[in-house]
Amino acid sequence: MGVLTVPVNEEIMRLHSWREVLEHALERGEVMDELNAVTSLHRAAKLYRFIGLVQLTQHFVARCRPQQLANALWSCAVLMFQRLKLQALMDGWAVKRSSGFVAQNMSNSVWALGTLGFIDEALLGVNLEMDGWSAAGWCGVDLTNTCWAFAKLQQPSDQLFRIIIEESLVQLGRFKPQNMSNLIWACATVMHKDEVPLLVVQSCEDELNMLDYDRLNSRIVMLNL
Fold it and tell me: pTM here?
């Protein structure tokens, strides 16, 4: 693996069409190695086959239900595929249909924005614009992925973080170490300073990592009394 292998691969993965991949190969061919060559070929093939689905999604997006919109946003993020026109279109309809979103739909949509590094203030602000919104009933993944996305996009929101931390404390006994780590990282990244709850999460994470389940469960029971 050469010095430029990783940065060139990152360039390839940011390309959005098979034509861009071919043009990139012509421009950067002299510094590419075998890994870059195969990555380019694979990326071009995937984008060539994917383009038809993108066009269909763009055509039908106005008819998509909340679950379908969230799935489309999540899928583009997983594939690291971003076209600004399609992204803005899906985000816009997601905001319009957000009243029908369940927790997972909302979490997946925000996670998609964070993964792609795309800031859509209207979609990010949907929850906070709902009167009396709470995160009650959200699972650990939905809670921590939402915080992670806001932190990844450098979009601090004391109100959202406070609501999510309150619910996280209720569910802490069911959290996995990764959920706790994501929550702590997100709060640290946006400098959210609910110190006492975060110290509780941190101590529970440490105990869980040490597999001291008895102490962890005792702490959760006392916390919820």
Answer: 0.71
